Structures are given as structure tokens and as C-alpha cells.
């Protein structure tokens, strides 16, 4: 028995599911959460990346692949956005692809560096039902309006305006 808890980032609208508080707090690996709570490391401005492009020989590519317009490569890189390893493997096959993939690789590095530092966080149990149960002033007027609009759209039942459950919006 017991309720499940989740760490919620209000500003980024992200959720870290944790489980039952006693089990999660004492027995889980918290490396993902700790990585999110740390301030990001400032990387040098693509010094190594530019070095890879300028050093060594550059071989002219004769493959039909390189007759494609750059926009097609952008579409390929967009498809690989969620798979950073595949993006890097494709990019390092030759310097031409590495040059074309520079921005998608930089974007992938920045995604990996996203942080919850300086964001509003709350550890919220599944039994939390109503906006009124949250600490006063935690949500802005705009956020409260979005919650109420989402709940009104999600529920066709006529409920008391002040006691609308918040669980659908904050569900993981």
C-alpha cells in the first residue's frame, strides 16, 4: 500500500516517475534525477568539432548520396533526432556529412545537457486531486487557466469550478 510519487518540473512540464516514496528514496539509483538537478557544464564552442573538419585529407565523395540537396540531409537528420548514436555514426562516415550534421550534433549535445536547475519542482503524490491542495502561489494565473481549460476539455461532466481535479494534466 501507499501512494506513488513523481518529481514534476512545472516550468519544463517534465515528469520523473519515482514510485512509492519509501522504496524509491532508499533503494533507487538517482543518477538520472541528479543529472537533471545539476547546473550544466559549459562546453567549449565546438573547438574539437571544427578541428575534425579541418585536419587531414578531404576526399571528394562520388556517391549518388551526395547529389541530394542539403534539405534532404536535413530531413534525414530530423528523422535521427531521437537516436543520437545513429546520428553520430552517420555523421562520422565522411567529412562532408560531418559538416552537414554540425547543427544537429550541437542540438543533440544541448538536449543531453538540459537541466532542471533554477526550475520550479514539486514532489507530488498520486492522491493529490485538486488545485487547492497545491501550495499557494506555486502556479501562475496563466498556468491555472491552462489547467482549468485542459480539464474542461478532458471532462464532459459538470463539476464544481473550484474543485476540479488536477491529476489528468499532471499525469505522467
UniProtKB/TrEMBL annotation:
- At the top level, the lineage of the source is Eukaryota
Disordered: region residues: 153-172
**What is the name of the protein in this document?**
F-box domain-containing protein
- Source organism of this protein record: Trametes cubensis
